DNA sequence: CCAAAAGTGTTAAACGTACACCCATGT
DNA sequence: ACATGGGTGTACGTTTAACACTTTTGG
């Protein structure tokens, strides 16, 4: 089997060139169809899903490694990426269980350390600009609703939960809308993004008022045609004002 | 020199029993004399100060290691301790510079990895309950004003800055007063704690009003006698209500 | 013409902020 | 008696929260 050899090579290289016992996990958030999504990978020849992750080269900063891993494993480049927690429990997974689930032969398994400390990053991306692509370790790469995840490998369900919690807390200071939405969007779309992340309904009149009062978005003449029912106006973020407001911490949303 | 041998033993043990290339740094905050303080250690036979830190045993969770290190190196036990950031730059210190500053012989130095990823924790402690004690690696352990730190070893000045920033942001959700103040305290003391962390003056009338409105502190009949001038009332945190308010995120302070 | 989503304004309550004087105490 | 820090209330402006009807559109 060619795949087994690739696996062995991968771990052998990591062993030689990467920091031992340390890894990175990336939680990539996107928003589409009024749902917050996470990008997951399905490992080759299995039905097992997990977060994209990888190792850190010995001469590479952890932040740079996170960007590289994202790029290598999902094709996504240069985006909003933030460290949110380091997962250091002594038992985060069972090596034998993982090895069984992934159909790994013993030699490959043994290369996987018994214990790994993992640094968690989350990314916010424009769903419409991502073309999920599987890499040599995986068969499939696709978006999953945050609300409806399968049981994942390792402690990845927990990692996603912590990322979500961080995202909620940081809603007020992070350019969430700016990174998760396409360039042009409607007010209801923005509202549903906030509702999804905050996990509670918001009043459309108050929401619209507040968002527009922040002065970080502008309404275009254009309307979104083609959908059924009344055509909503399109909006666009004013990048400069958004950044300025973020710096001043003006984007709290209670 | 006995110390050199101890050093070598220490690193040899760490090499054998600890996770390689990973360390923990602890930023311990205290409050006294209207100043926010950090606990620092002076390395033996030098004038070089740094944060208490250490390594993680191979069978120990990172959180537990942080508590153990704190206890071992400062005598402080069982307190508020929170991971705040992982420092993963590829060049966080110069091994030769460190070795020179600490008067380390080559063999000991070579045991120190060329690169270490460090997980930062910050602790909030009751200043009055801590008896700073140096350990076998250090000559002295004492509090320093956050506003007036010396140039520290490694990237520890930067680590403290990030911890402070985190502390400021989290003032609203963390039991800062509860952990940094003695059981009984006066309103001006609490106010100065907040002023110090937020780094700006607050109006005493508004501060008192707001704090008491939160319903998490109770005024005792007792007053603090002995100081000159008018005797201030003593207050105490209502632990239950404090925890409840924290859960509900009601402790924002703008 | 109908169903469904988009869009919008007013009011009351809560909260934040600015501001100044008297009081208690030890020396 | 006095110097010093402790203690307190009011008024104004801003922000939030609650609330319902009309408009637009495609089918």
UniProtKB/TrEMBL annotation, chains A, B:
User: TM spans, by residue?
Assistant: none
**What InterPro entries does this protein map onto?**
NUDIX_hydrolase-like_dom_sf, NUDIX_hydrolase_dom, WH-like_DNA-bd_sf, WH_DNA-bd_sf, WHD_NrtR
Q: Which domain of life is it from?
A: Bacteria
- Domain Nudix hydrolase, chain residue ranges per copy: 19-168
PROSITE patterns the UniProt entry points to: NUDIX (PS51462)
Q: Which Pfam families match?
A: NUDIX, WHD_NrtR
> Which protein are we looking at?
NUDIX domain-containing protein
């Amino acid at each position: 089997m060619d795949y087994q050899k690739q696996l062995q090579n991968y771990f052998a290289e990591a062993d030689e060139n990467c920091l031992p016992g340390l890894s990175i996990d990336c939680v990539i958030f996107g928003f589409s169809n009024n749902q917050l999504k996470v990008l997951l990978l399905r490992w080759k020849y299995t039905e097992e899903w997990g977060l994209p992750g990888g190792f850190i080269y010995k001469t590479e900063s952890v932040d740079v490694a996170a960007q590289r891993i994202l790029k290598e494993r999902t094709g996504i480049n240069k985006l909003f990426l933030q460290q949110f927690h380091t997962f250091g429990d002594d038992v985060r997974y069972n090596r034998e269980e993982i090895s069984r689930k992934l159909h790994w032969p013993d030699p490959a398994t043994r290369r996987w350390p018994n214990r790994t400390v993992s640094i968690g990053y989350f990314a916010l991306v424009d769903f419409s600009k991502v073309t999920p692509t599987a890499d040599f370790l995986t068969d499939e790469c696709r978006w999953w609703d945050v609300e409806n995840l399968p049981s994942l490998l390792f402690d990845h369900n927990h990692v996603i939960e912590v990322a979500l919690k961080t995202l909620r807390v940081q809603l007020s200071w992070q350019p969430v809308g700016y990174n998760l939405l396409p360039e042009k969007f409607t007010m209801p779309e923005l509202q549903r993004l906030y509702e999804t992340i905050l996990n509670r309904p918001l009043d459309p009149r108050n929401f619209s008022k507040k968002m527009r009062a922040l002065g970080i978005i502008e309404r275009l003449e254009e309307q979104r045609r083609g959908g059924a029912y009344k055509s909503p106006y399109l909006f666009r973020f004013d990048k400069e004002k958004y950044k300025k407001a973020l710096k001043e911490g003006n984007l709290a949303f209670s």
